[in-house]
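Changelog entry

Holo records now carry the ligand SMILES as an explicit input line rather than a separate metadata file. Below, a converted record for zinc ion, shown in the new format.
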Amino acid sequence: METKTHLLHSAKVSNNCPECYSTEGLEFTFSQEEVENKLYSKAKGDILETLRCKNCQQVIYPVNWTADIERVYNYNRKLVKPLGTGMKLKPLAYILIIIDALFLGAIIYYLNQS
Ligand SMILES: [Zn+2]
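Structure line, unchanged by the conversion:
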């Protein structure tokens, strides 16, 4: 199993950073993890949300958010379009299904011969 992280949405925020008070460093990122193996891939249901300050390199946790930051968060959260969490089959899975079907077809064919 391999895990890939997809960046869904990111937004620069002009609010003051609660750590260094810079108004230029804050950025929200919304991402989603997808696990995959040789046969299929499937996105996880939860969205990973991070507020990070590029100025002081700190991750700002929701407990330290101001009301303004929360408002910007709520706005950006609505812009996020999550990946569907359905299972997506890979070409190898289809090949195996086809081989299976051919194999089954061959058995039925031989059974009908006798
Ligand atoms: Zn900062």
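Spot-checked after migration. DSSP finds two helices and four strands in the chain. The helical segments are 67-77, 91-113.
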